[in-house]
Every structure is written in C-alpha cells, then in structure tokens.
Amino acid sequence: MNRIYKVFVDFDGTITKIDVGEELFLQFGDPVKAREIIALWMEDKISSNETWIRLCETLTDFDLEKVNAFIDSVEIDDNFLEFVEYCKKHEIDITILSDGLDFYIDRILSNYKLQHLKRYSNKIEFSSDNTLTPVFPFSDEECKQCANCKRNHILNLSADDDFTIYIGDGYSDKCPAQFCDFIFAKNSLLKYCELNRITYFPYRNFHEVKTKIDEIRMKKRLKKKMRAELKRKEVYKQG
Description:
It is a single chain. The protein has helices at 20-28, 31-42, 48-57, 64-72, 80-89, 102-111, 150-157, 174-177, 187-195, 206-218, 226-238; strands at residues 5-9, 93-101, 118-126, 132-135, 163-168, 182-185, 201-202. The protein is an alpha/beta fold. The chain has a domain at 5-17 and 76-123 and 134-238: 3-Layer(aba) Sandwich (Rossmann fold), CATH 3.40.50. Helix 5 packs parallel to helix 10. The longest helix is centred in the C-terminal third of the chain and has 13 residues, at 206-218. The radius of gyration is 18 Å and the shape is globular. The mean pLDDT is 93.
C-alpha cells in the first residue's frame, strides 16, 4: 500500500512527562503570577504571544546554570525513542510542533540524541542583563491559541493525499487536531475531542500510539477524515 503518513506531535506533556514551559516559570519566576497568566490564556482572555511575553517578565533573576540543570532533569516518554525508530523504519515523517520555547526543546532533544528531528517552536533571545525576550517567527494573527501556529505547519507540510496524524495533550493542540485524519489525545485535548465530537484514540504512552498506527497501516481500506478535509478547504479558500 503506497500511502504517505505524516505525524505531527506536541512537545510539552506529550513527548516530555511534564509541561516544561509551565514548570520553568513556576520554579524560576513568580509562581502566583505565572498561574494567573496561564489561566488567562486558557480562558481565551489573552493570546499565546502575550502569555509568553508576560511569563518572561516574571523571570527577574534568571540563572541559566540552574535552569539548564532543571532542563537536564526532564524525562521524555519511556517509549518515544522506540516510536521514533518505528517511524524511521516505516518511512513515516515526524514533525514536532510546539508552542513552547526553543532553548529547552533543543536541549532536551539533544540530551536524548534526537536533535535530528524536525521541529517548529517559539524562540528566546537572551540579553546581556539576563532577561528573556520571546520571538514568534511562526505566529498567525488569526490564531490566539498558539504563538507558533500549528495549523499552518500541518497545512504547509502535508499534501491532500497524505494521511495526517496528530498526537497531543493540551490546550494548544485543540486547533491543529481539527485538521488531521487521526488524533491521539490525552488530558485536556481528550476532553476537548469528546465535547466537540471529534474522533480520537486515547493513549497513555507512545507504545500505545505505535501499536494503533501499526493497525491503521495494515488496513486495506482507509478513509480520510471528512471533517478535517472540510476544515482544510475552509483555510485554503481564505487564501
């Protein structure tokens, strides 16, 4: 079967066991303010861009050495390396789409010798006075849920005939999940799919994801998700 599969996967809380970006500001910023800022974002009261700007302002005494020690302690899903090898073996393309920050994503991937994986995220600029400035090279004015518009990456990196797979767990995954044929969801993304009657596969780890994708690949007949196709066409019409 000559099918092309494209896997798009969230980073924080999906590849990693914790939400690294959130925990970073809770530990090294002002935890009370950080929680308030994150709550405003999840209530759609501020954009993702504004969220990162405000969170970075809470880091008044940034100690890179301590932050790097924290980043180096972060663990990834026990089965993610196995999943990456599976995709490589079967020529399944993987792209990491994160609304997090490049400096910790790159370091964690490097720690696990996964720096070769394609990834798109927001970026951080470090200044001489130890302050952090977030930069958003992939933002979309219409999208408030992600500073790094995951939907746009999915549309740009996949063709109409490709079978797209999205794996996520959180608030920033709600939009991109609507544009893919197969959704693997847990935590708040799972609740969102249930409330909005979006077909999904629940998962706890990447071994379960791998097993289910294997089942999908073995099917003689496979249909693309009509709802996702319609959503894609809506965007294409907008230009």
